[in-house]
Amino acid sequence: MKIQFPELQGKSITHGEAMAESLKSVMALHLTEVEQSFVQDLSHISQAAIFSGGMTVDEVIYIKDNLYRCDYSYNWQIAWTCSGTKEAGRVKEKVRFTVGDNGDIEFKFLKLDA
Prior knowledge:
This protein is α+β, with helices and mostly antiparallel strands and about 110 residues long. The chain has a domain at about 1-40 and about 55-75 and about 90-110. The protein has two helices and five strands. The model has no long low-confidence stretch (mean pLDDT about 90).
């Protein structure tokens, strides 16, 4: 998934720890725009588990060159309608991404083939 955040367009990009902090702030501002793409397959919890909001960017880590990692988390829930009960929890995920010289960000989600 490739995305452009307005705050990064036309800016001079210097990669490193300081950029990681800036990226965390920018991603937090635009989280509602990308959250559906960030929600991964919840079938490891249950086939009935669904995303229930509360996504946060926990940390952005500089890895090397133009490569970063975003650690994020979000809530899930299961509503067992037959018994009238609910289960809920929080998932922690990670995604690597690159930042182009023009400020474009390309997320590299791990996709497992069934």
